[in-house]
Design goal:
single chain, 370 residues, mainly alpha, 10 helices, elongated
């Protein structure tokens, strides 16, 4: 009966499906009336309950509206406060950034001022040490001054710093000239043995001054040591002839011994001064031989170049080059292994002098053909 598609005719036909069942009509009618009354009572009870429920729902709705009326201003107040908080945070963040930048600038300023104070103090100390020729201390302090000065390249527009930079540059030039003068005077007065320690410390200053200063001193030393050689073997035709080639090599071996015994302790090992000296000797000797051989070929007396003398000189030159290779290759190889520097290269003395003989070997070939 609770079915929405309930059909009473079908239901009655099912109940009174046989004529004999008609006797129960009264009972069936009473049962239906009883069920109807129960349904009416249930409907009435539900109606009363729904009425009460509707009143409560209305009350709840009104209460909810009242709550919403109170809630909306609170939400608006929270939103306003949130906006105020956001603005305050933004302002605080900007203030913090400004303070952070101020702190960075202040720290940078303090660092620059501290470096400037250190530079000024180091410069004054360096001047005093330079005038008293305390070169070991000068070298250490000079490196510090150069490093500190590098920090002020971007501040050269400031007059005081520009003036300090010029003063430092002037002092570097003065120290360079002073060291060169000390070397020149010491060698001129033959006081090397007495002043070896001072000159060795002066080389540390030249290292601190850079490659140009070091190259200048190396060039001066080589020219000074080879001056006598050039005067003897270039200024005298007999001494400079091929017949006296052995004297040239003997002279240089004596000079190398003097270097090893007296001068080597003055120069830093990484300067490779003896190698520079050997290179300068080889270059000068090669040019001398080119001139001598060229002049021998163009002789006006009709005499040709002595083939035996040519071969003898060549062999002696090759032996000399081999001795240089043996000495400097071993020394340079040890230096390279110690320093582990790719810029260090072993010297090459092969054909350093004998190159001058190559264009004239045809004279020997012609003599063999005859």
């Amino acid at each position: 009966m609770a079915n929405t598609e309930y059909n009473p005719i079908d239901h009655l036909n099912a109940i009174f499906s046989h004529p004999s069942s008609l006797s129960s009509i009264v009972k069936t009618s009473d049962a239906l009336h009883t069920y109807q009354n129960e349904l009416d009572e249930e409907i009435e009870a539900l109606t009363r309950h729904q009425s009460v429920s509707d009143v409560e729902s209305v009350k709840r709705i009104r209460a909810a509206k009242d709550d919403l009326a109170e809630l909306f201003p609170k939400v608006e107040d929270v939103r306003a406060r949130a906006m105020q908080t956001e603005e305050a945070i933004t302002e605080m963040t900007a203030d913090i950034k400004r303070l952070d930048n101020t702190k960075k600038n202040l720290t940078l300023s303090m660092t620059v001022l501290k470096r400037l104070q250190m530079l000024t103090t180091a410069y004054e100390q360096l001047r005093g040490l330079s005038s008293s020729r305390q070169y070991k201390e000068c070298a250490q302090l000079l490196q510090a001054v150069i490093q500190l000065m590098a920090h002020f390249k971007s501040y050269r527009s400031i007059d005081q710093i520009a003036t300090l930079g010029r003063n430092v540059s002037d002092l570097q030039r003065e120290m360079l000239e002073q060291v060169c003068e000390d070397f020149e005077v010491t060698f001129a007065k033959a006081e090397v043995s007495q002043r070896r320690g001072v000159l060795a410390e002066a080389c540390l200053v030249m290292d601190a001054l850079g490659d140009n200063a070091r190259s200048r001193l190396i060039t001066w030393y080589c020219n000074t040591q080879l001056r006598e050689y050039r005067q003897v073997f270039r200024g005298n035709e007999e001494a400079g002839s091929l017949d006296n080639i052995s004297r040239r090599y003997a002279w240089f071996r004596r000079m190398l011994k003097t270097y090893d015994d007296e001068h080597a302790v003055m120069f830093p090992a990484n300067w490779r001064m003896s190698e520079m000296l050997a290179n300068a000797f080889c270059e000068g000797t090669r040019d001398d031989f080119k001139h001598i051989l060229s002049r021998s070929i163009r002789r006006d007396d009709g005499l040709s170049l002595d083939v035996d003398l040519l071969l003898s000189c060549l062999q002696e030159t090759l032996d000399f080059e081999h001795s240089l290779e043996s000495r400097f290759n071993n020394a340079s190889r040890a230096s390279i292994d110690t320093v582990s520097s790719d810029s260090e290269k072993a010297p090459v003395f092969s054909q350093a002098i004998s190159e001058a003989f190559e264009p004239y070997l045809s004279v020997w070939v012609e003599a063999q053909d005859k």
